[in-house]
Structure to design on (227 residues):
């Protein structure tokens, strides 16, 4: 059974940082693209970032230069380092498996709140 | 890139069919057969319903179907059921350094 478990969310002040983790199990992690998708309270879905099995990275314009995605294939984990956080980054952050640009399995999400 | 355009809401009665449109551009929906659709019930995780324009994952009812014409993709739900009431989001590959774009979402109400 495919499982994705996010962690690392919390409350941070504007300008601060958060590091999200997503632990994967039930599939060959090293063979799959992975993504982070976020959803602000009461809003729609927004793709944030993706990473290929070899480590190629992709970012939404809204986070490029502030967020960094990475992966550790030995630990079946994908990370999202979020720096220079803004109030508008407040959202539930979902980790998703991303074969051929579709999101076929999602984690339960972790809430990141940016507020003073 | 701007979000794909979806109607804010659609409604239908049980047993009827509805279609949700998703309009992009020649740089995303019109260029790739990589549109996917997601169903999200309140407080729940999104669920993949359609991928690569018209393919259904295992376990998804054949009442759900996808299509595309030009820069507009569509999700059709036939034989509406009360449990279909949810938010629906389209998504397309767009190439380049920001390769994924979502629609704003459509709230489906089953009257």
């Amino acid at each position: 059974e495919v499982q994705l478990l996010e962690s690392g969310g919390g409350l941070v002040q504007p300008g601060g940082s958060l590091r999200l983790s997503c632990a994967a199990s039930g599939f060959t992690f090293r063979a799959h693209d992975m993504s982070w998708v976020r959803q602000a309270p009461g809003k729609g879905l927004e793709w944030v970032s993706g990473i290929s099995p070899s480590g190629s990275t992709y970012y939404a314009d809204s986070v490029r230069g502030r967020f960094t995605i990475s992966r550790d294939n030995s630990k079946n984990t994908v990370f999202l380092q979020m720096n220079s956080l803004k109030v508008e980054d407040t959202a539930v952050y979902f980790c998703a498996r991303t074969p051929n640009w579709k999101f076929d399995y999602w984690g339960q999400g972790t809430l990141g709140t940016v507020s003073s | 890139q701007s979000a794909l355009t979806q109607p804010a809401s659609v409604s239908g009665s049980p047993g009827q069919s509805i279609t949700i449109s998703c309009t992009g551009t020649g740089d995303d929906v019109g260029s790739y057969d990589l549109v996917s659709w997601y169903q999200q019930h309140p407080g729940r995780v999104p669920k993949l319903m359609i991928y690569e324009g018209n393919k259904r994952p295992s376990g998804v009812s054949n009442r759900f179907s996808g299509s595309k014409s030009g820069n507009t993709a569509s999700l059709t739900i036939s034989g509406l059921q009360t449990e279909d009431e949810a938010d629906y989001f389209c998504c397309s590959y767009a190439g380049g350094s920001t390769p994924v774009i979502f629609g704003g979402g459509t709230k489906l109400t089953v009257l």
Observations:
- The interface with chain B takes residues 35, 37, 44-47, 50, 58-61, 64, 94, 100-104, 106-109 of chain A (CB under 8 Å).
